[in-house]
Amino acid sequence: METILNKKDLDFDSLLRTIKYPLIILDKENIICAANDEAEMFFGISRNILNKYKFSSLYPDTSPLFYLINQSRENGNTIREYSLSLTNPINQITHEVDIQVSPFEESDYLLLIIIERGIAKKFNKQYLQAGSSKSLVEMSSVLAHEIKNPLSGIKGAAQLLIDGVTKEDQALINIICDETDRIKNLINSIEIFSDNSQIKTEKINMHTIFNHVKMLAENGFAKDIKFIETFDPSLPDIDANKDLLIQVFLNLIKNSSEAIKNNKIKGEITLSSSFLSSVRITLPTSNKKIELPLCFSIEDNGGGIAEGLFDNIFDPFISSKKDGKGLGLAIVSKIIQDHEGVIECQLTKKGTKMSILLPISK
Q1: 151 with 107, same domain?
Q2: Under a CB-based contact definition with an 8 Å cutoff, are residues 45 and 90 in contact?
Q3: Residues 102, 300 contacting (CB under 8 angstroms)
Q4: With contact defined as beta carbons under 8 Å apart, do 110 and 72 qualify?
Q5: Is residue 122 part of a domain?
Q6: What is the mean pLDDT of each successive set of 10 residues along the chain, which is 362 residues long?
Q7: Which residue stretches of the chain are H helix?
Q8: How many domains does the chain have?
Q9: CB count, 10 Å around CB of 37?
């Protein structure tokens, strides 16, 4: 361990303390040779004792943790798994956690991080909410159909009245027509949640989507904002609906640009793409595990999202905008679910980061 933990000009003990998740380092025999304060609290064992434990004394060889450890050693890559149920061996409390196992370069040591609050809960919430609200959505779809018919009649009758009336009355009739159109558009937005049909997909390079929406934004609502690109050009294609993903990323970039303008700062939006090796998520509705290695992110410096809204930001009718309907991010979440992916929101020091994880094209 000398070569890893006792390098000059670097206090690894202080470094471990700055990481606010349970963290341990394993040697080639899977003996714990370093741990931080959060690991001490998580396992309920002092660091001095924990640092002498063999990992198999805490968890049996059949634990999924050993599968991840072995995979990381064999492949020499970082392995991540989300939504893993992990029972604390000391107090027998079960936690839902994200796990990351990473090898140290040119050594047999592994770094294991346990994250109790991560994408897993957000992912489960998005999918479980979609299921629990299904009956409500179906009822809304029936009501929407019944409401749109009389709306068309109201607008048609108003248009027939417009000839031969005073300018003052014409203004009132125009209000009737505009308001019926507004209600109809709102109903159309709600109806997307009841659409369970299979989306039409084709093989798409996501960078063409990024480039397209960036061009639209720069020549429109985000013309005064600086765009920064950090793309991985080697990413493979995905199976996707081009028009729907354009809608998703335009919506996210527009939200970022509005947050920047409201914050009255010199705006920056970073568009990024990356490959996350061995990212696996368990569907909450089944035991099926899906691979989501492709990550596409939009990050801004617009000041972030109000704390009271953050946990429910993807729920319908939740909005931080004064005149917002609260359907934009709910629709974005629905579209990403239809692509067998997941979207997560993170607050950064300067603003908000939206990350979309998608599978590789089959």
Answers
A1: no
A2: yes
A3: no
A4: yes
A5: no
A6: 46 65 89 85 79 84 88 88 77 77 86 72 56 50 68 84 82 85 72 65 92 90 92 90 89 91 85 76 62 88 72 60 60 84 81 88 74
A7: 2-5, 12-18, 37-43, 47-50, 55-58, 64-75, 119-132, 134-161, 167-191, 206-218, 242-263, 307-310, 328-338
A8: 3
A9: 14
- Domain final residue pick, 174, 194, 214: 194
Q: Which two tokens stand for residue 160?
A: 């027939």
> For residue 208, how many other CB atoms are within 10 A of its CB?
13
Domain boundary among 144, 164, 194: 194
Cα-based angle 128, 132, 134 (whole degrees, multiple of 5): 115
Calpha distance 259→26 (Å, rounded):
44
Domain range holding 18? 2-117
CATH number of the CATH domain containing 305: 3.30.565.10
How far is 42 from 116, CA to CA, in rounded Å?
A: 10
Nearest to 39 by CA among 56, 51, 54: 51
